[in-house]
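=== Structure Prediction Worksheet ===
Name of assembly: unnamed complex
Input type: mixed (protein and possibly other molecules)
Chain count: two
Listed entries:
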Amino acid sequence: MQNKAFKTTMVIVAIAVALVFLIPLFWMLATSFKNDFEAITAGIKWLPDTPTLENYLYSLGGTESDVPVLKWMSNSLLVGISGTLIVLVVDTLAAYGLARLDVPFKKTLISMFIGSLMIPWVITFLPLYMEFNKLGLLDTYAVLILPYSANAFGVFLLYQFFRGFPQSLEEAAYLDGANKWQVFTQIVLPSARPLIWTLAIFTFMSIYNDFLWPLVTTSSPEMRTITTGIAIMQQGSFVSSPGRLMALTSIATIPAVLLFIIGQRALIKGVTQSGIK
Amino acid sequence: MNKANRKSQLTSSLFVLPYLLLFTVFLLIPIIYGIWMSLHNWDLLSPVHEFVGLKNYLNIFDPASYLNNLFFTGLKNTLLFVVFSVPLLVVVGLGLALLINSLPARIRGLFRTVYFIPYSVSVSVVAIIWLWILDTNSGLINQYLQKFNLPVIAWLTDMPWAWISLVIATLWWTIGFNMIIFINALNDVSEELYEAGALDGASRWQRFRFITLPSIKPIMLFVLITSTIASFNIYGQPYLMTRGGPGDSTKVLLMNIVDEAFKQRQLGSAAAMSLLMALMMIIISVIQFRISNRKGVE
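=== Predicted Assembly ===
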C-alpha cells in the first residue's frame, strides 16, 4: 500500500520536473509565432492570439533580412559532419593499431594519448588561434573543423573496446590469408559499429554546439556557424525583437533536438562508457 | 624474419600515423607554442615579439599590474560559479536519477529523454531562451510574480540574482548529462545488496545511505571532477546573459583571458593567464581525487 502511494507521488514529481524542462522550450516556440507587440505587452499568453509566420519568414528571408540563417545551418552541418568523419577515421585506425598491432613505441603513445585527456582545453586555445593565424587559415572551414581531431577521447573509447574484442575471429582471418587492412575493415569495424555511432553523435554534438572557438576564429557573416550566428544576432539587430530571436533559435534547435532523440540510445551508451572508466 | 618484422611494424604504424599527426599539430605543438608565447610580449598586430622571460607571470602576481586584478577578479568569479553550480550539478543530477529509477519501468525512458533534451541545444539558444524568460519587464517569471502581487526581480542585473540566473540556466542545460551517468551507476548496484538490506528491515533512506551511496562513490567522484572542469570553463552563459555584469561581478576568468587576447591584443599575457588557469584546474582535480580516495580508505 505504502509502496503504491510512493510510486504515485514519484510520478507526480516526475511530471512536475518534466514541465520545468519543457516550459522554456515551449515558451520559445510560442513566442516565435507571436508578433512583437503581443510578445512584449500582451501578458502571459501560452498560445499566440494571432499566430504569425512573419518571424520565420523574416529569419529565413536571406538577402532581405541580411541574416544568412540557412548558410549558417549548412556551415554547422558541414563543419559538424566533416569534423566527425575525420575523427571517426583517424580514431578507429589509431585505436585498433594501439590495441592489436605491433606499433613501435606503443606504450609511450598510449600513455601520451591518455595523459592528454587530463590537459584542460584552455591551454591550446590561444596558441591554436596563432597557429591558424600564421597559416592564414582563420575564417575558413579548416579552422572550424581540424582542431577537434586532436581529442584523444575517441581513441581511448575505441581502444578499450578493441582490447576486449575476442582475438579468435581476427586470427582465423589471418590464417585465411587476410592482411591487416582487410581484418580491420571487414571484421573489426563492423563489430564496433554501435560504439562508432556513439562516438559520431558525441563528436558531432560537441562540434555543432561549440561556441567560443568558432566565435573568435570566424569574422565574416557567411562563415558563422548557427550557434555563433544567433549569438551575434542576439547582440545585434534582433535584440529588440523577441519574436524573431525565438524563430531563429527554434530553427537552430529543432534539427538538434530531432537528431538527439534519434541518436539518444547511442549517446546514453557513450555516456556510460565514458563514465565507467 | 627480422625483415618481415620491420615490414609488419611499418604497416602497423600507418594505422596510428594519421591520428598522431593531427595530435602533434593541433595539441602537442600548441602546448609548447603556448608556453613560448607566454614568455613573450606578444602583441597580436606586431610582427616582432620581444622575449620577456617570466615577466607576464610576475605581472599577474604583482598587485600594481592591471593583470593582477584581471586574473584574480576573474578567477574569483569563476570559483564562485564553481562553488554555486557544482554541488547542485552533482546533487540534482543524482536526485533526478533516483527519481527516474523510482518510476514504473515503462515510463522511465520517456522521462529520461525529456530531462536530457536541453542538453542537445547550444549555449546561445540556452542564453536566448532564459534571457527572455527572465526578462525584467516581459519575462515569464516576473509576469507571474506581478500576477501574485510579488515584487519583480531584476534577474540579470542585480546581485545575487545574476549568479542565480546563470546557475539556473546551466542546470537546465547540462543536468541531464550527469543524470544519465548516475542512472547507469544506480543500475549497476548489485540487486543482492538491496535484497539483503530489505531482509534486515532497512528503510528506504537506510538503503540509500548504506548501500546506494557507497556503491556509486567512484561515479560520484567522476561526476564531481567533470562538473568542476565544465564549470571552470564557463564562458557562453555570462558572455551572453549578463555580459559579465552587474559591473564586473560575473565576468569570469575565461572572459578576461579572451578580452586580454583579442581586445587588448596581448596574447603573451593572455597565454600566461591560460596556463595558470589550466594549472589551477589540474590541481583542483587532483585534490578532489585525493580527498575522495582518502575517505574511501577509512
